[in-house]
């Protein structure tokens, strides 16, 4: 048996990377060497918790967002002990349990929890954050080698926690000097918004939580004009209301095996809910806990149908805004400053006047229309399809067939519970994923609660593999 500690590499230093690290530390009793390869200077923030705007809030109650499952109120206790030190105090009348802390503070919580857990391990865990971009992964005998822009990293096992993939940048036609600064894409940096104070009209592409963040940032920067919010379905982000869950949409002992049956159950519940004057959000919330089980059994055709027809409405209810954030949106709508446009963006072009001409096609129409704005806000979301990603690591993994794209186009083929990567149904020993890469495999993979659960399962599975096959002897299954 090898005496040197196993080396575990996590690619991606956002939320999923850090919660994976926590679970690997907590699942293993033997000495380990842990390396997070993350491109950002700070760990644990990723896209969501990097924002420097204090009005960008987490979208759920603090009592549900702890990252140590054994201590359900871990975040609440951390806030009680540390929020003031970081300059945040509870809004009047709120409790820590029922607060919606700012996302920057949540990122600090994730970082400090990692630091504390590492400190408690003494020298059992050797930890390193390599600030680098992973650009390739290969097998080296029975181990892995991660190629990074700062040199290679050898590891016994690898966790892909690579998160969201940015979409291609919006192209604006026109001379370079005229198009510069016409698109705001650094949405979570307050200095990116300074120019909007003098603008009259903004186009916001997308209508989800990212669009709401953008509207809050524009308002904070002094924008007082009109928003045109363009999205394909026109479903504007909803505000979170604390509604008791409707108890009997599904029977857990006889879950529907097809999407049609599931929709039938939901429609029946909707009729009952309407009759009793209860909030419709309850149906989605009641179904959500059963999604992992139903998703694992669903056919690819049903998964694709769900993604195509129901996903925007489903996500609209699951990913609701904190009440304080929702009120900012309500105020803009009530003032008549937000116009919803439902359709598809065709072209952006800067005019001689300096305005951006937006060419778009309303949904259900074959004729294009135009209107003009001062600036465009790129809040149109992320690329979930690994086949479409230009990220060098993703291209390398697919080219070397170390991973396969999932049949749905979302993320990669993997065990939906443990996150172990699969190729044609065969487990790839020592290669795991947590979070967004698992969207096709287990669907709900993009929120705090789900990623914490996934990290627990991955930590247990990975460490138990290492214990049965100690360092240096993980046998890839292929
Ligand atoms: C604006 C926004 C707000 C959100 N708010 C909430 C919320 O309030 N509550 C909630 O539950 N969920 C929220 N989410 C969902 C969010 O996706 C998850 O909560 C979680 O933060 C995702 O973390 P992640 O690590 O998977 O992804 P990411 O945040 O995308 O982090 C991945 C990190 O890995 C790095 N990386 C990727 N590839 C490589 C590579 N090859 N080499 C090196 N580094 C790499 C990236 O640069 C990035 O830093 C929000 C999402 C967004 C975008």
Total strands: 18
Average pLDDT level:
92
CATH class wording of the largest domain? Alpha Beta
- By CATH, the topology of the largest domain is FAD/NAD(P)-binding domain
Bound molecules: flavin-adenine dinucleotide
- Structural classification: alpha/beta
How many discrete structural domains?
Answer: 3
Task: Kindly report how far apart the N and C termini lie.
Answer: 23 Å
Largest sheet strand order: 9-15-10-11-12-13-14
Main β-sheet: number of strands, strand sense, barrel status? 7 strands, mixed
The stretches of 5 or more residues where confidence is low (pLDDT under 50) are: 471-478
Report the β-strand fraction as a percent range: 15-25%
**Helical proportion?**
25-40%
Number of helices: 13
Task: Identify the CATH architecture of the largest domain.
Answer: 3-Layer(bba) Sandwich
Q: What does the radius of gyration come to?
A: 23 Å
Which overall shape is indicated by the principal axes computed on the Cα atoms? Answer: globular
Can you describe this structure?
The chain is an alpha/beta fold. Helix 1 (15-27) packs parallel to helix 3, helix 1 packs across helix 13 and helix 5 crosses helix 10. It has helices at residues 15-27, 74-82, 103-120, 176-179, 209-220, 259-275, 281-287, 291-297, 300-318, 323-334, 392-399, 439-442, 448-468, and strands spanning 6-11, 32-38, 125-131, 134-140, 143-148, 151-155, 157-160, 165-166, 183-184, 201-205, 226-231, 338-350, 356-362, 369-373, 375-378, 382-383, 420-423, 426-433. The protein folds into 3 domains: 6-166 and 384-468, FAD/NAD(P)-binding domain, CATH 3.50.50; 176-238 and 320-380, FAD/NAD(P)-binding domain; 252-311, no CATH class. The model is unreliable at 471-478 (pLDDT under 50). It is 32% helix and 21% strand. The protein is globular. A 7-stranded mixed sheet has the order 9-15-10-11-12-13-14, with helices on one face. Strands 3-2-1-7-18-17 form a 6-stranded mixed sheet, covered by helices on one side. The chain has a 3-stranded antiparallel sheet with strand order 4-5-6. The structure holds flavin-adenine dinucleotide. Flavin-adenine dinucleotide is lined by residues 11-17, 37-40, 46-48, 58-60, 133-134, 161-164, 209-210, 213, 393, 435-436, 446-448, 451.
